[in-house]
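Final report, results section. Input specification for complex C-07:
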Amino acid sequence: MRAIVVKPPKPGVEIKDVKIDEDKLSTIGLVKVKVLENGICGTDREIVSGKRTSVKPPAGKDELILGHEAIGVIEVGGYGLKEGELVMPINKRGCGKCLNCLVGRPDFCETGEGLVAGTKGLDGFMREYLYDDPKYLVKIPPEIKDIAILAQPLADIEKSIEAILITQKRVPIWTCDDSTFNCRKALVVGTGPTGILFSLVLRTYGFQVWIANRRELLENEVEILEESGIIFYNSAGGYENLVKNVGKFDLIIDTSGASASIIQHLVPLLQINGVLGLFGFPRYDAFSLDYKTVQDFVINNRIIIGLDNGQKPHFQQALIHLASWKSLWPKTTSKMITKIISINNEREVISSLREKLPGEIKVKIKWE
Amino acid sequence: MRAIVVKPPKPGVEIKDVKIDEDKLSTIGLVKVKVLENGICGTDREIVSGKRTSVKPPAGKDELILGHEAIGVIEVGGYGLKEGELVMPINKRGCGKCLNCLVGRPDFCETGEGLVAGTKGLDGFMREYLYDDPKYLVKIPPEIKDIAILAQPLADIEKSIEAILITQKRVPIWTCDDSTFNCRKALVVGTGPTGILFSLVLRTYGFQVWIANRRELLENEVEILEESGIIFYNSAGGYENLVKNVGKFDLIIDTSGASASIIQHLVPLLQINGVLGLFGFPRYDAFSLDYKTVQDFVINNRIIIGLDNGQKPHFQQALIHLASWKSLWPKTTSKMITKIISINNEREVISSLREKLPGEIKVKIKWE
Amino acid sequence: MRAIVVKPPKPGVEIKDVKIDEDKLSTIGLVKVKVLENGICGTDREIVSGKRTSVKPPAGKDELILGHEAIGVIEVGGYGLKEGELVMPINKRGCGKCLNCLVGRPDFCETGEGLVAGTKGLDGFMREYLYDDPKYLVKIPPEIKDIAILAQPLADIEKSIEAILITQKRVPIWTCDDSTFNCRKALVVGTGPTGILFSLVLRTYGFQVWIANRRELLENEVEILEESGIIFYNSAGGYENLVKNVGKFDLIIDTSGASASIIQHLVPLLQINGVLGLFGFPRYDAFSLDYKTVQDFVINNRIIIGLDNGQKPHFQQALIHLASWKSLWPKTTSKMITKIISINNEREVISSLREKLPGEIKVKIKWE
Amino acid sequence: MRAIVVKPPKPGVEIKDVKIDEDKLSTIGLVKVKVLENGICGTDREIVSGKRTSVKPPAGKDELILGHEAIGVIEVGGYGLKEGELVMPINKRGCGKCLNCLVGRPDFCETGEGLVAGTKGLDGFMREYLYDDPKYLVKIPPEIKDIAILAQPLADIEKSIEAILITQKRVPIWTCDDSTFNCRKALVVGTGPTGILFSLVLRTYGFQVWIANRRELLENEVEILEESGIIFYNSAGGYENLVKNVGKFDLIIDTSGASASIIQHLVPLLQINGVLGLFGFPRYDAFSLDYKTVQDFVINNRIIIGLDNGQKPHFQQALIHLASWKSLWPKTTSKMITKIISINNEREVISSLREKLPGEIKVKIKWE
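Structure output:
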């Protein structure tokens, strides 16, 4: 079948025929999924560019099928899944050994031996067909099929917020005097898809949300953020003005994925009992905090937390949230998919895997 | 202004002019809300029939304005609420003394001195205007205004499920091997609005859901339950057949509000580590459990839990869920409001407050 | 080797030689434990009397070695256990299948296939030697060896209180205004070893504790309860006087193990948001609650919870508590072991397994 | 009355007569406490040396009574406290405004206006008498009076571990396959009283514990750590050897209070899902982490958490733990109080407030 293939660590990507053991379905417990569409993510482009050094093909191979965002339709069902149902495969798979993987939470895998489709030891989803275990397939409601591809990146964010809210249970009362989060201020750094999705979920949880970038927003970004009441701040001149006007932040999420040095600018913006969530990877540089900032961090019960990967419950939560946004914020949801490319338009597929266009939120590849 | 008024414990109800201290807005912290619509609930009818003995007018009065479900529009705003915004008032108000009320959770008020609009010591919402504290007003997204009146009864259910899920944290792993609730079976007893809403929320959380009544479903009820995959069981002949085919239940919710004796039929249906949630009030009779059933209850870590009232975070969660249902289950949501009556159609308003029509889910009174 | 053996469901008990496969140690992962002492518990006597119908010998056998409370010394060590170390075996063993058993919590086993030494499908600990898996052996600090046998019954109670405290997290604030439990009132029904241990743990957690029985306390019971400030109430005339003087209870634990009807007398004593914990088995009769009591139960967020079995973390917690009591309440701890019988005094061992003596708290059998 | 007094920010300390409004007891809700003993802590010495810049006398005064560790006896009781009872005052007091303070948890005060006896805006406990609110007095069991002064520093540690364990609930299973913490490895950096107490509590919770310092242990330190199985590591040559032999750590606590740069050496020692707890204040320098370490931190779900202050429940927990240690580790507890100085021995009191002696764990001042 056709698939989008990389040969890490070499840069480059191609669409080519690959052989998949066609009798895999005889393996107990698998169903056959025809892939309908894939989402392209920054990680894919990093792999294609050869910059992501941690990427690994399946054991014994030098090629890797790319892609960790996909929607497909069941062609040969079973085990509770019926022909014609829409599904999304989950990218992170368990090690089969540690307790977290046994209870369905490979995102906290302790052995480090869990595989990740499209990036770490397991072929990805950019191909005509999958043969997969229903445990790792999430049913997609047809009513929101147009935006459902967002459920994969959103699942990571749902898990992140779950982790943060559990962490904040250490504070006896972190809710407001009406028991909501309406008085809590969150700052999301970065206006890429991840920053936008984080902001939307935080709004859904009732937080006041500021989103920051070091440039002005493009027009479509403005429209996406408007409906849900997210406030934009241009941080090109630093955060002083923001703090002067708004105060410190109970929750800060860094999605910038650029210089690690941003962390030293964000820690001092934290409110008492505040949390700095690190999501995504800084690409260069370092950060430094002096002893006075550390003292302040300690005396004010602050936390820095690493955030990663969602699992099946987070995919399902993501779908509920996407469905609610479709009703509540129709303009926002209608602008999140910025481009749909046919797999037959090979040149544009390859080009989209190489480069992000200005104003892009999410690009989908359509298999037909 | 006009209002719908009762004189408990006398049966009866009338629409009449009432005097409200018009300079209340000078009180610090209040806004003025023009009521747009009210929902009618079984509790209202019980009060009108004179059967609900616990109902109390405000201190020093013998009249009570009815109603605890309302949507209004801000006429005089302030404190974060702007003219023209839609809001829903919360019915349960804090005692101002106990810690739970201080942190915004009068649903767990410890003094028992909290008031409840329309039923206990506080005038209700069936009237032209409210002067209220924004702390007790929930913003309603205009996009779901048509079904938003359901957020009040749904808030009670959101709180109930929150309470149950916290309670089940006593079981180290109550999720399935994919960390979802997809393998868990819930039985909801009663097909009134509460039973339906409970079933829909449990589906949203990923549970398998059966709903039971001692009669066949009406056509509109069938249509409401179909889309979300809720399975109906006619319990006229008992629950034996159900358990034989489906097994025992991890979660059972009684919303029947009839004979207390049903409890003795439900407890033996509980799975190991299972929960029986009692929501709403039985009206007569008693239940009895023999020592062997109690032994079984103890050795299998079961729980019976009383469920009541939601607060602001539950109203907000209810709105998110309603919005998601509008996308996911459009047929269901379009059939939940079974009738809209103009306040000017006095005869039908009174008649609707007296009697539930067959097939009714939710009836709204429209102020105009 | 010698062992204390029953043949359920026949009444009776004997000390006799039994054959145990002596090369069991070659099985990977086992150590050899020489039993030093056993505790006698009410369950043992029920089995001996033939009244406990649920007791089962190991599969394919008609004899069962009795006993689920033991302390032993490692004779052949390994896997982190050294010769000479004191250990206590855990009675409840996992099914090896369900997630709760996989994470070390067979007390919430979902398959119902877990075994229990001395009562359900597994030989007990009243014998010269055990060959056991270190996962099920708890290290006993020699410093508290004299009272350590109490760690087994106490473990069940530690787990029960853990389950209750998690359950009460559903109440946003169940602690007092100093964040302790010092204002919370607990009533423990029953003054047997279980009732006493429950009361002591609740005191340790800071609760005010009343303990009730329908007779006056014996002198040694008075002395045991005095030091820790537990207050005795004679409930022969009902609970009216208690409630009149003390008010309702936030937590009630029934350890009486007699008539199930007591439950209907205890439910109305519950405070708002209160919990009734059922520990141990009622032996006869039934309880009945009328619809008004159920209404009250619902509107006040109450809970009835079945409590059972502790696992390794609860045994370890029990040992810490016993050690603290030895310092804090030396008189109490010195009076908990009311008799020590040599295994060689066969007549008295058998007689103690048949009948509880007045004033008995815990009787130990000593192997020598 | 006599008191030990400082005039921050000036260095120095003196024992002198101070005037306290003697009719304070007429204030509703206070009791009179005669101070029996004080503990000296590193913070006291920092204040005396003039190095702690954050210290503040009560509003409008330039003198501050020193001391935040004390045991006293009730002289004029009331409100549940009786004459002759032993009590320990809590140092951190609520702001009276924020929700955390209202529920008894000033350690998470959000306004920053809470006061701390002996360091921030409130006179400390090194004086003949206190007039205090029973809400802030913890009953001390006479049986452990000799070591009870340790409950104050220990309370901070109990709170810290509580915060960490709640935080780790984000990991579905952070316990071992027997549901204990016995497989988890903790590293405590620093062998001062705080490091030792942290290690002892972690042992009590079942962790494997290593304690590190950049020098060899003194003889009395060896004896204190031996009984409870804490393993010492000399980190003068870095942590490489430790990790090579033992592996990475699930939990690392820094109590060193010296250079902030140590943090950059500790972060890379964290296991997957691991926590770095910062307790106490670094005094100089900074730490720096490069982007690769941050990537690793993110992908492995790690956390850095600031730890501070305990409140009443933590004092009570500390007393239970001290009582258990007295039974379990008698040699350890007998060596924790390294010196007792009479207040009348003015020269030695002052000298002890100036300088820590080699081998000192806890020095007590005795009032007589």
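Residues 93 and 115 of chain A are 5 Å apart (CA to CA). The mean pLDDT of chain A is 96. This concludes the modelling results for the funded period.
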